[in-house]
Amino acid sequence: MKTIVVLGGGYAGLKTVVALQKKMRNEVKIILINQNSYHYETMRLYEVASGSYPYTRMSYELADVLDRSMSELIIDQVEKIDIKNKAIELKNHAPIHYDYCVVALGFIFNDMGIDGAKEYALPMSNVKQAQAIRDHLKNEMKAYSEDHDPKHLSIAICGAGFQATELAGALAQARPRFAKIAGVEPEKITIKMIDGSENTLPMFEGKVLKYALKQIKKHRIEILNPAYVQKVTDHSVMYKEKDSDDIKEIVAGTRIWMMGFSGSPVIEKSGFKNRRGRVMVSDHLTAPESKDIYVLGDGSIVINPATKWAWPNTAQMALSMANYAVDDIRSRVNGQARPTKYAYHDLGEVLTIGESKAAGNALGHGYRGYLASALKNKKIIIDKSLMETGGLKETLSVGRFDLYH
């Protein structure tokens, strides 16, 4: 019996396990290795960081969806993949050997060599980091109530991509709650985003983009662009504007780092050819170094043939890749013809701005306001991903059904 080791319990990893259990019941042995005992919805981390919801409202135990007759869960940290000997090196366990390995270890934010970023800015790529942002914000508000230093009311976000903008919107929505702790009016709390791109939200255009920018402004979120972070200190973010040598400073008690997206450091440590921790995968989603290693989700690069650029690594794409990898593995185990090369069909992107406002594209159409919110605002799209990874039970447990706002 073949052993399939899956690294990571996120969208791609858990979907791989669930699909294998369904399509190859008792034909293979599955070992899922994850740092935590639970799966969490990465695209809802901003809800935790803003203090809107606890992580338990967007997570569930991995054991709840595993078929114990064919699947084993190991809670540990992956240190390295020994490609030559087909083994996974772990922090606290003996090496685990595999016939096929699915690498789905998620992403991190790196400091991009910016002085002070690692020491003085807070990233948001997992639950613990989101909780750290939440707790830091509360402490800053409490500090203001004691010393009245305005820096405690200032939030600077380095980056203005999809996740950064959703986080900014959630923080803006939470202003009244933070203001109550600080003892000030909500408008006293400022949120600034530093964007190195000349075009904010380049994935949108026309009315959708106009609506998104209007909502950002309405939520009193200031975007500085094009602007380039130069340094982060224990009380500020230093930046330059385009075509200027002048260093400007945002004094801020809360400095959040949402730049420098990279795949897991395990990719580099294991000797895979990579670009910032991401592997250019084959037509069958395997690594160049081994046809028995599949790299899915945030650790992979798949080129969009229409644009010649890499597809953005979204939850939607991670689930799609997992479905393909399972079909490919099944065909190989059973000695059948392999499926044709992987092709991603993008269903669109929808951006949440606060609790009830959103904008985006889906199925070739632009959506704004309430309908977009119902689609994405961690409601229909979130519930769909939950159904694919956790099934009906987990969808009912932690899904979003509040379509009325």
Describe the structure.
With 405 residues, the protein is an alpha/beta fold. 31% of the residues lie in helices and 27% in strands. The chain has 11 helices and 26 strands. A 6-stranded mixed beta sheet has the order 5-2-1-9-22-21, with helices on one face. Strands 11-18-12-13-14 form a 5-stranded parallel beta sheet. Strands 6-7-8 form a 3-stranded antiparallel beta sheet. It is globular and about 65 Å long. 48% of the residues are buried. Mean pLDDT is 89; it is low at 370-380 and 398-405.
Percent helix range: 25-40%
Unreliable spans are 370-380, 398-405
Helix/strand structural class? alpha/beta
Task: Give the CATH class of the largest domain.
Answer: Alpha Beta
Quick recap of the structure?
The protein has 405 residues and is an alpha/beta fold. 31% of the residues lie in helices and 27% in strands. A six-stranded mixed sheet has the order 5-2-1-9-22-21, covered by helices on one side. A five-stranded parallel sheet has the order 11-18-12-13-14.
